[in-house]
Write a structure and sequence with these properties.
This protein has about 180 residues and is mainly beta. It has a four-stranded antiparallel sheet with strand order 4-5-6-7. Strands 8-9-10-11 form a four-stranded antiparallel sheet, with no helix packed on it. The chain has a three-stranded antiparallel sheet with strand order 1-2-3, with no helix packed on it. Strand 9 and strand 10 form a beta hairpin. It is globular and about 45 Å long.
């Protein structure tokens, strides 16, 4: 059981909780990320977060794509972190998505991240469904808009890609499920 100071150490909205392979608990909050390290009694703001722009952003989704990296969806795009064997956290990359053919604004608001394989990801963001390709490394990553926002993607919340029901994507919205 957690001590009371553990439960009270996060004083803002918590959008998502995630336990990594090291048994640390990550909290995606209204004001960035916090971590409760195994054996500790209080959530902390790691140095990697304090040095990053994520510290003031709304983090709302965490996943462990390819087990060594943590992918965090925020209102400022996607942040990728790596925890080394000593437990130090390193920011690997930060991605924002901009599609000038569809909208003048960057599509920074990320709802969900779905791993296709270790090098390709579907990211559900404000503009629609984005495919992110990191096969050439984090620095040379590329992305493209697979499906732009519209009636089928109104208020998207989560995505399941390439499903067994013969739809390309299953999208969870504020008004139920969409098969597109």
């Amino acid at each position: 059981p957690f001590e009371e100071n553990t439960l009270n150490s996060l004083k803002n909205n918590v959008w998502h909780l995630y336990e990594d392979k090291h048994q640390n608990i990550w909290a995606a909050t209204e004001k960035g990320l916090a971590i409760l390290r195994k054996g500790k009694s209080k959530f902390e703001n790691d140095d990697a977060f304090l040095k990053s722009k994520i510290n003031s952003k709304r983090a709302q989704f965490i996943t462990n794509a390819s087990s060594d990296y943590l992918w965090v969806g925020t209102d400022d795009g996607v942040y990728v972190y790596f925890t080394d064997k000593q437990g130090s956290i390193h920011e690997m990359s930060h991605y924002n998505f901009h599609f000038p053919d569809y909208t003048d604004e960057q599509s920074n608001y990320v709802y969900s991240i779905n791993e296709i394989n270790n090098e390709h990801f579907y990211i559900l963001c404000k503009s629609g469904i984005v495919e992110l390709d990191i096969s050439k490394g984090f620095e040379k990553a590329s992305y493209n808009l697979l499906k732009s926002n519209g009636q089928e993607l109104e208020f998207p919340r989560t995505i399941l890609a390439e499903n067994m029901m013969n739809a390309s994507y299953i999208i969870g919205t504020n008004d139920g499920i969409r098969f597109i």
